[in-house]
Design goal:
22% strand, alpha/beta, eight-stranded mixed sheet, Nucleotidyltransferase, domain 5
Length: 600
């Protein structure tokens, strides 16, 4: 019988009628003072209702095989792991591995203060302990149905040799890959999850963490999951949205704007606001006045929401998945500290002011620990405002001045279709954009009518300017692009980027077509030049867009970010016109060389 069907068949024939996780926990578990010093007593989700969908993922018939629980401070994420584990000990026991950053931390914070304390305080768990106390140790508890093992992620203990049904990784974002070149190994989290192969179909992987860097493996599990957010109704206008905190940092090399919800679209939006009168003459803040005047601004209609509304809103939450492509077996949740019953709007505001006001740089801990957001130091962060200021005075489809050279660029799509752009450069050394659009397939750009339709009028004259040649990306669907360029008889030429951090473009040849020139370039170098230097910092060559540049162009040029720590540009989905502009800047560099040769 398939292991995947076993729990469902057991339920169907009432061999075990397992109650919901929340109902069982609230009926049977008491939190000891050692585990919950502030609120000992019967377990309840009344004050923390957002725990409910996360806890139900532990039910053996939920169909969930992987959970990433991402949360800010005071959101009970560790307690949720302990309660879920307790439920499985009673109702669907399997060997369980609990991993953490270090053994000492696991022994004190997870084993002594939580797991052992909860087991000994609750008869439904205590009766499953071994009679021989030597088999109930802090780092290995031989419970009925399976042993609970606790191991530091980088411990020399033979984690790789054990068989587990459940693997719970606590503070997963703090677990780093320590592989050495002389002894390469997979990431410790992956090694832990590998231990569940024998229980395939019944396995359960659970990660609980406060995020740090976005390239951390734990965060990648969150991104691969459902990315479930907790939406709340505004008590005034009735619109639904999740609690977030957006802030723009001015006056430095970078702007920081976290917009994790599409609805909060304004360029400047801060959900928490307080009276400017709270600023004292010496520049510090009067904390009492900040707390008294702090309100949350509804991102839909600007309604002012006070602390008195907050928990009533949380009680009415709805879960909505931001990653609808993820399988329902891979759940991931994210909750900023706004959802905690112990944290007020005023607390969030004061913590923000202490950690890093608008003009300081200490915001990383606030973003990680309170907003449950990753933090990346950006060397470049191109936003919509940077693109909008590139608009000139000419209209789309009209050359304001005669270009030195005009060209078409094309970015073939990975599935179907292709985007194109008409641009050129002027005597004033300006890269000017005239028109753009898309076609069904990149072979369509071979149609003579397509190219003829790209000749545009020159302002204040009867002359029309025709593109002299074109450049097409050959990084994807390479052979078909080569075929298109070959069939164009000298109009289209292929370009291809590489992963080199530095380096100028160079001319090469296509091995299978010796007469076809291929232009190779460093993608990082080209983006540095275009997005960081020319667009964000506005240095060197000016980029000029039409005055009536539409939202399609603006949005496909915005959003480019370069990670300061890795030196790499992030992948941006659907930035085809951005790539077309990049090829246009490359065309300008190539054109300069050939024109210089002609002049000599």
């Amino acid at each position: 019988m398939s292991a995947r069907l076993t729990p469902f068949i057991r339920e169907m024939f009432a061999l075990e009628t397992a109650p919901s996780v929340v109902r069982w926990a609230e009926s049977n578990l008491v939190l000891p003072r050692k585990m919950s010093p502030a609120r000992p007593g019967p377990f309840s989700t009344e004050r923390q209702p957002t725990s409910r969908p996360i806890l139900e993922c532990w039910h053996p018939t939920s169909g969930v095989r992987s959970v990433a629980n991402v949360a800010g401070a005071q959101t009970a994420k560790t307690t949720e792991g302990v309660i879920g584990a307790a439920y499985r000990i009673v109702h669907s026991p399997m060997p369980m591995l609990i991993m953490g950053p270090s053994e000492d931390w696991l022994r004190l914070e997870i084993s002594e203060k939580r797991i052992i304390a909860l087991i000994e305080a609750n008869p439904c768990l205590a009766r499953l302990k071994p009679s021989d106390q030597s088999r109930f140790r802090k780092m290995a508890m031989e419970m009925a149905g399976g042993t609970i093992s606790l191991e530091g992620a980088n411990s020399p203990v033979a984690t790789a040799g054990s068989t587990q049904g459940i693997v719970w990784v606590e503070e997963a974002a703090k677990i780093e890959h320590q592989s050495r070149e002389d002894a390469p190994e997979a990431h410790p989290i992956k090694l832990g999850f590998e231990r569940t192969k024998a229980f395939r179909g019944m396995e359960f992987h659970y990660l609980s963490f406060t995020p740090n860097q976005d390239r951390n493996l734990a965060w990648q599990y969150y991104l691969a999951g459902t990315q479930t957010h907790f939406y709340l109704p505004c008590p005034h206008c009735g619109e639904w949205w999740p609690f977030e905190f957006e802030v723009r940092k001015e006056g430095e090399l970078q702007d920081v704007l976290e917009q994790s919800q599409n609805e909060a679209r304004p360029d400047v939006y801060r959900s928490l606001v307080w009276s400017p009168d709270a600023r004292q003459p010496d520049g510090s803040w009067n904390e009492d006045k900040v707390r008294e005047t702090c309100v949350y601004v509804c991102p839909k209609n600007g309604c002012e929401i006070t602390e008195e509304h907050r928990m009533a809103m949380v009680a009415k939450f709805e879960t909505r998945d931001h990653n609808e492509q993820a399988p329902k077996s891979a759940r991931s949740f994210r909750r900023p500290s706004f959802y905690s019953p112990s944290v007020t709007f005023g607390d969030m505001a004061i913590e923000f002011l202490k950690r890093g006001d608008l003009f300081t740089t200490g915001l990383q801990n606030y973003y990680n620990s309170w907003l449950a957001q990753t933090w990346t130091q950006m060397a470049a962060n191109v936003k919509e405002k940077h693109i909008l200021r590139l608009r000139g005075s000419h209209g789309r489809g009209v050359w304001p001045t005669k270009p030195v050279m005009a060209w078409l660029t094309c970015d073939p799509g990975e599935v179907s279709g292709a985007h194109w752009m008409l641009s050129g450069y002027t005597e004033a050394d300006e890269l000017i954009v005239i028109d753009w659009g898309s076609v069904v397939g990149h072979a369509e750009v071979l149609n003579p009518e397509f190219i003829r339709a790209r000749q545009c009028p020159l302002a204040n004259s009867s002359e029309r300017v025709m593109p002299a040649l074109g450049y097409m990306d050959a990084g994807h669907d390479t052979e078909n692009v080569y075929n298109t360029c070959e069939a164009s008889k000298g109009f289209w030429w292929p370009v291809k980027g590489n992963d080199n951090t530095f380096g100028t473009w160079r001319e090469s040849k296509v091995a299978s077509r010796p007469w076809l020139r291929l232009y190779l370039y460093s993608d990082t170098q080209e983006k540095d030049e275009l997005y960081l230097r020319m667009i964000q910092k506005r240095r060197g060559t000016k980029v000029i867009l039409p005055a009536d540049a539409d939202s399609q162009l603006v949005m496909q040029l915005a959003g480019q970010q370069k990670d300061r720590s890795t030196g790499k540009w992030k992948k941006v989905p659907n930035d085809h016109l951005g790539d077309c502009l990049k090829y246009g800047n490359l065309a300008k560099q190539i054109g300069r060389v050939y024109f210089d040769k002609l002049k000599r």
